[in-house]
Amino acid sequence: MNNADVSTDTPESLLQTTGTDHVTLIGSNPEETVGFYRDVLGMPLVLRQPNLDRPEVTHLFFDSGDGRLITFFVDEERESADDQRPGTGAVHHLAFRIDHDRLAEIKTNLDDAGHGFSEYDRGAFHALYTEDHNGLTIELVVDKYAIPDDRRAEVLALAQQRRLADGAEHAAGEHVEAALDELGVDVERRDLPDAATGREFE
């Protein structure tokens, strides 16, 4: 298999992961980190303890909504940054799913709280973009179609095949719809507003 081939087949590898447990970032201070991830994004803070390798640093664990965790190493002495300039090996952005039925409410809430955001059609899905207190890009994703969690990789891999067959630059809603239909999954298109393509913060 070519290393660039897209497939849901289990690869020949040294081990096989069974899912994402957590992703850990270097955060600023606990107050502003909790203030954004718990009080803006609504992620419960489920564990707070010393970093086991550096006990002078605090380790915060947030439930992103499905039991999978996003965690931060924070320190009372750290100031929040106002800008992110990610390079090779750095985090470019974090993406979280949101309830499509609450999209309008979420936009209103962000706006009312002074959190600027941009809204774009990303082809296979719809997205809002905002920033956390350190300038890290946060993407809030709504799938254009209802995709069962246990079929997500399968649907996206087949949508990729449909995209290539069409000669399309990127996966679009019609490719996801064709994949769902071919896999025998109910096609449930969500009612989402029109949005520009591309991405730019306000």
Write the layout of secondary structure elements.
Blueprint: E1 22-26, H1 30-37, E2 45-50, E3 58-63, E4 69-74, E5 93-97, H2 103-112, E6 118-121, E7 125-131, E8 137-143, H3 152-166, H4 173-182
Parallel strand pairs: 1-4, 5-8
Antiparallel strand pairs: 2-3, 3-4, 6-7, 7-8
Question: Describe the biggest sheet?
Answer: 4 strands, mixed
Unreliable stretches (pLDDT < 50, length at least 5) are none
List the secondary-structure elements in sequence, H or E.
Answer: EHEEEEHEEEHH
How large is the radius of gyration?
19 Å
Q: How are strands sequenced across the largest beta sheet?
A: 1-4-3-2
Helix-residue proportion:
10-25%
Distance between the termini: 43 Å
Number of helices: 4
Silhouette: globular
CATH superfamily of the domain at 19-79: 2,3-Dihydroxybiphenyl 1,2-Dioxygenase, domain 1
Query: Could you tell me the number of beta strands?
Result: 8
Strand fraction: 15-25%
What structural class do you assign from the helix and strand content? Answer: alpha/beta
CATH topology name of the domain at 19-79: 2,3-Dihydroxybiphenyl 1,2-Dioxygenase, domain 1
**Mean of pLDDT:** 90
Give the C-level CATH assignment of the domain at 19-79.
Alpha Beta
User: Architecture of the domain at 19-79, according to CATH?
Assistant: Roll
